[in-house]
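FAQ: What does a multi-protein file look like?

Like this. Sequence, then C-alpha cells, then the next protein.
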Amino acid sequence: MSRQADPVVETPAGSVRGLRDGSGERYRALPYAAAPTGAGRFAPPAAHPGWSGVRDGTRPSPTAPQPTRDFGRLDMVPYFGPGWVPGREYLTVDVHTPAADGARRPVMVFVHGGGFVTGSNRAALYDGRAFARDGIVLVTVNYRLGIPGFLDLAGAPVNRGLLDVLAALRWVHDTVEAFGGDPGNVTVFGQSAGATLTGALLATPEAEGLFRRAIVQSGNGTGAFTPEQAQRVTATAAAALGVEPTAEAFAPIPDERFLTILPALAGLDLRTGTARDPLAGLSPFSLVLPVQPADALAEGPAGDVDLLIGTNTEEGRLYLVPQGHLESTTEADVLAVATRVHADPQTALAAHRAARPGGTPGELRSAVLGQALFESGTRRLAQAHARISGGSTHVYSFGYRSTALEGRLGAAHTVELPFVFDIADKPWLHGDTCLLGPAPAPPGLAARIHGAWVAFAHTGNPGWAPYAPQRPAVEILGA
C-alpha cells in the first residue's frame, strides 16, 4: 500500500499517520503522557506537549524498563512480548479501529499483565484485529513497571503505574472519538496485574466518568500491599542501591541499575502482624493501599460500572508445571506456601485436601497458589460489586485445559487470553512448549468467549445470568 493511501487522523495533540489493512486501521506509539525520565520517573504522569507535522504511527513504541522472565519449558514470549525495548517515550497506547470515521463505536482499553514488572502492548497475544473486525475500537496501554511504577518512595506519589493507566483513560476520553470510538462507552479490561489494576480503578474516585464497564481476568481484588509491606520492599531496594529511600535519592540512578537489584527483592517475607503476602512471594511489587479494592468499592465509580469477572480453574499450574515443580513438590513445600498466604494454614490445607481427595502435593500447592493469588480476591470483588451495582455483575470460570507440556499445563493462568482475542488458531500458540499445546483449540470456543467480551462491551451483558450474593451464578467457559 502506498504511503499516500495511509490514513491520517487529527488528534488534540497533533496529526498521526497509521496503517490500513483488511481488519481496519492501526495507530501505534501514541503518547498519552510525557516521557518519564530522570526524576520524572517518580512523578505523576505529565501532559504530553504534542507535536507539529504528521507523527508516524506505524511503528511500535519503546517499552517500560523490565527484566527478562523465564518460565522454564513454556514459551511465554507471546505473553511478555519483546521485553525491554529502550527509549524515552514509552507511556503510549496503540489503537486498532475499524475506521477513524466518527462512528462512535464501543471502546475497549486493555491493561496488560506481567506481575507489575514485565509486559507491554507489543505482546503478540494482544492482537486487536478480531476486536476491530467486530466493531470495537481497541486501545492497548503501556505503563510504568517495577521500581519506577510501584516502589513506594518518600517524595513520590504511590501507585504511579495506576496513575499512568488513569492518564491513558483520560487520553481515551479526550481523543478516541477521532478514531471512531464512543468516549461514553468505554470498557477497561485487564489480565493478571492488569486485572488487579482494573479492579483498583473501580475503587478510585478519580476514575469516575472514564469508563462504563470493566472486565477483570484473573486479577486480585485483595492483592494490594499494606503500607507496612511496601516499606519492607522499599527498605530492601534502598539498601541494595546504597541510597536513602526517597524519590530524590533514586532520581539519578539509571534504569539498568534498578533491574540489577530485582533479584535482591525476590522472595521477601512480607507477612506482618496484620497481613499475609497477597502475591505469595511471586512479585515484590503491587499496588500500595490502606484498604483492599474489594473493600473500598463504594469510594469509586463501581456502582455505576458493569463488571465481568472471573478466573481459570487451574491458575497455579503456570508457576509449577513449566519449571518441573508439579512433580517435585513435597508436603513441606505445600505447607510453606500455605503459611505464607494463610493465617491458619492447617485449616486451609484441610479444606483443599477435602476438595481434592488423593491430590498430589503438587496439585495441592497449585490449588493453594490459585486460590490465594486470584480466586479469593476475585470472589470478594464480585460479591462486593454485586451488593452495590444492582444486577450488573457477571462471573465466569474458564476451564479449558491446555495440552502443553505433556498435557499437564491445564487451565493455567493466561490460557484464556488467546480465546478472548480470538487468535487460538495461531500456529505459534500450538506445540508442546507453546501456551495452548499441540492439540487444536476446541471448535467454537474462541468465538464464544470473544463474542461474550464484545457483547459485554456493547451492552453490559455477556450472554448469561448476572451474579448476586443470594444467587451466585457462574458461567462455565470451556470446561
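And here is the next protein:
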Amino acid sequence: MIDFNNFSLTQLLPQPLKSSKQDQAMAAAITVMMQRVNQELEILDPFSLPEALLDIIAIEEHVDFYDPSLSANQKAELINNAFYFHQRKATPAAVEDLITIVFGEGQVVEWFEYGAQPGYFKVTTNNPAVTNEQAAEFIRALNSVKRKSSWLDVVELSQVEKMNLYFGGVSHTGDNITLRQVT
C-alpha cells in the first residue's frame, strides 16, 4: 500500500516528463495536495459526526452498499471501512467484513466446504437478533463486495439455544433369579 505522507508523484513520471520543469512542478503540487487530503482524512472520525453528514460522506467515499435506512453506527462503520473495502473487493474476507457489519457475526462457507457446485457459497450466522430485513439488506449489499464469478447459495440464520440436558442410566450386576408360583 502506498504511504501518501511519504509519497512523491514525481517518482512516477515517465522519463520524457521528468525532463520538463513544468511537469515536475505540476507533479510536486499535486503531491502536496494529495498529502494534505490524506492528512485531513486521517483526522475524520465518522463516529463523531451527525447522522445527516454521514449520508453525504458516504456518497463522496463511494460506499457502494450504503443504505440511508441503516443505523448511525452501521453508517459510520461502513464509511470508516470504505477504503479498506475497496482494497479487498472480490474476496471472501470482504464478504465476511460485510457480514460482521450487518449481522454482527457470521462466516462465509465456500462451495467445497459444504458440497455445492463450484462458484457457490453460503453465509451462516448464529446471531439470534438477525431479522429477515437484515438478511435482505445484506443480499442487496453483497453484489458490491463479492466476486462476479461467485453466487450466493443461501443465507443460513441458525439459532442456538442454551438448555439444560439431563441424562441418567442404571446399571445392574448380579444373578438372574426367576420365581414361579406353584399352585
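Q: Is there any per-entry metadata?
A: Some entries carry free-text notes. For the entry above: The beta strands are 107-110, 120-125, 151-157.
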